[in-house]
Amino acid sequence: MTWMRMGCGARTKAIRGVRAALLVLGAAALVAVPRPLAAQQADRETRTPLTLSEAVAEALMGNPAHRVSGRRAAIARADARAIGSGLLPALEVGTGVTRSDDPVFAFGTRLRQERFAEADFALDALNRPDPISDWTMDAGLRWSPLDATRWAGRSAARSLVDATDWGETWSAEQTVFATKVLYYGAAGADAALVAAVSEEEAARAALELFESREERGLLTRADALQAEAELRAAEAYRLAAERNVERAREDLALQLGWEIDRVPAPTDTLLAPPPPDAPRPATTRADVRSLGAAREAAAAELRRAGLSFLPRIEGFAGWSSHADRAFGVDGSNWTAGVALRWTVFAGFGRVAERQRATEAREIARIRHEEAVRAARAEAAQALRDVHASRAGLEATRAAARAAGEARELMRRRFDEGLATAAEFLQAEARAAGARSREVAALVDYNVALARLELVASGSSERIRADGRPSAQENR
Q1: What pTM did the predictor assign?
Q2: How do residues 129-169 score in pLDDT, each as one tens digit?
Q3: Which domain holds residue 12?
Q4: Is 289:457 a contact under the CB 8 Å cutoff?
């Protein structure tokens, strides 16, 4: 964490060489220039208090990457509908007009319009007919009820819809995880700033105490300079903590999809709930289920490629009318039939397609099996990380309590003249460092819990990009 405080050893070294330390810490304070008061006021005006649950809801609605995943799932559902429509009859209607003096056209048109008469058998009328107009209206119906490739294609499309739906759910879960991490980071930055302000106040109180004792001849000027160096270091740390708060909130706002003029202000405090005992199987994770559905889609594509060698049955029907005027019906006719079509040879193209589908199915199988193994390993590692971070948190809390008690004891010893100024300042530095490490450990533990929830918790339902459970269209 960028806002973690330097260790006690580094602080102890900073005490050595009083005048050199003053120059270094003074330069650091100049680099960490405080933000203008106008900018701080603007932050206060645009700051939006936000709980963790509100941040998650905002991210599911506004995060750009998750919104893109929702659009991709919608495209897959539309593709499935388009492929499934090939199993339904296709109806076409039309109208048009044709005018010609072609003998064959004129002869046939009069027959279709049912206006053929004996005079039309005259040789002059047959060889050199007058121009004739034919206004037509027609309707046609086509259907391939027994086309095995279309049924297999529909099955593959449905599996792809499942894959993209589960991918959308995984995107939602990753969005929730990333939002929690950034929210915990922002809350931790706030806690670190509180600790920095407290440390600066303690350092200022120590400096006032040292200067008072210097005036009474109880301490030397070097002791007062050491206290002033500690105060300058505390000021530099507080300025850095303020900057870290600003950066953490900006990162959180970007994750939420907010405009630059809105600044989230976390209101939930960091807690330390007990770790879960037995998370759900990682093999039911949304990303694993997505790859499993993609594997099923690849298998369906292989079946479709194999079924392309079989014949198909097509049915067709049509009706048309003919007249010498627009929208008239002088004569009409209809046609209906059934055809068996079999592509016996197509230049080995279907053989290549089947080979490609076979390799694609193997790739999908390998990816799915590897995802299952990786999910189990990630779940086990995440559970170990939770327990390790929990132990680290308890250790840092114990260290912070001990450092606080030691500081109070050293203060009393210093007041009684039993401890030196250097020992007193070292105790202050250790207590401040322990508080910072406790905040960092608390953030790390919450992040470890969030990661365990992501990688070791199965998905019970699909989640759409708008945060709602998927309606499961076209199942």
Answers
A1: 0.77
A2: 889 999 999 999 998 888 888 888 899 999 999 999 999 99
A3: 8-62+151-304+355-455
A4: no
